[in-house]
Design brief:
mainly beta; Phosphatidylethanolamine-binding Protein; 6-stranded mixed beta sheet; 3-stranded antiparallel beta sheet; globular
Length: 154
Amino acid sequence: MKLISSAFKDKGIIPSRYTCEGANISPPLEITNVAPNAKSLVLIMDDPDVPEHVRSDRMWDHWIIFNISPTTRQIPEMVGPTSGIHGKTTFGHLKYGGPCPPDREHRYFFKLYALDVLLPLKEGSTKKEIEKAMEGHILAETQLMGRYEKGKGY
């Protein structure tokens, strides 16, 4: 399974359009080689570079969607997947929240999981709840990492 974006390369700079300094919309994503027996996909975007004084667990969840159709191949810019249920981000929202690092360049991981089940969870579930429900059901996983630092004018 592979996850790419036409907006930035893996380990590349995320354009400001997709951040708090721009339009703060989700980037376009493309999914390939999904396991044929997958029943659902999960997409989690998080930032592990959060300063400890901001979050003691040093993790910020920017976008969480589960029970995405396994036939999904394109996630359009700003629209998100046409199927799936939104989880609650660290912002407290049920939608994408773009990079907005408070101190330096951060890494943003778009993690995609193929599961052998639909998750029996409700909208607004947290990443921890989703990860617990995914245990033992992951068929494949991949990730796309982008970087961003405020004030650089990307």
